[in-house]
Amino acid sequence: MTIKLAPTLTLANGVAMPQLGLGTWPMNDAEAAVVVADALRMGYRLIDTAENYENELGVGEGIRKSGVSRAEIFVTTKFNRKWHSVEGARMACEASLKRLGLDYIDLLLVHWPNPDQDRYVEAFQGLVRLLDEGLVRAIGTSNYKPAHLQRLFDLGLVPHVNQIQLDPYHLRDDLVAIHRAKGIVTETWSPLGRGNAMLTDPVVTAAAQRLGRTPGQVVLRWHVQSGYIPVPRSTNPGRLAHNLDVFGFELSAAEMTALNALDRPDPAMFDADSFGH
Predict the structure, then answer these.
(1) Which of 28, 186, 220, 243 is found 20 to 30 A from 193 (Cα to Cα)?
(2) How many structural domains compose the chain?
(3) Catalytic choice (44, 53, 120, 169)
(4) Tens digits of per-residue pLDDT, 23-70?
(5) What CATH number does residue 152 fall under?
(6) What stretches of 57-184 adopt beta strand conformation (E)?
(7) Is 44 annotated as catalytic?
(8) Segments forming the whole domain that contains residue 74
């Protein structure tokens, strides 16, 4: 069987990051060990986990069981608010490395800014030191809003990646414009939306019917065609395969325009000024 790998995007420091990955929340260790191994054998090369998911042990086991060379795998993890300091970032990194059973992390993110404790700048400064020392290959943020990023920019600091909730219903144009201006890669969590509303949207299903693809593939194609890196989660082997198979077709300009017109207010969306861990 020929394995087709996702193409890569090049981060600002020259590191190549696969343009689609496997999200692992809310898998437990046992599930992650099986699904990560299966996904890697299938052709996934980006695996996304976090301290807060409590499955880094399983992710590490899956990596070792997969038979895929560590050098081919791009591992992302994230740390919680208790580690928001320069030295705390190091402690978080070392703890994740131990749980994962790895010598380095490809991308380490501050999981949420938690502005109530106002240490998210120090947390990122800690990442810069880890990058300089080679414990991580790239550094970034997750769920940082424009005001949070500006605090970093004011100090001359620019994340390689900002991972945010984004999909055709949540375009986040203000953030994406900042990312593009600063050379930050946009990584998207919950790229297929929460629940099934987006996957049954007539705009999505019409494109799926024209292309002979699933609604999920249409939405993931929208992400990659927009220049984003989505990390969809699934434990279903068939769906895992479908999610990875989005690089052999294109949405038309009209379909992209129609999908971009689906943006809407969402008062239930997590707000990084008040939510975090």
Answers:
(1) 28
(2) 1
(3) 53
(4) 999 999 999 999 999 999 999 999 999 999 999 999 999 999 999 999
(5) 3.20.20.100
(6) 74-79, 105-110, 136-142, 161-165
(7) no
(8) 11-192
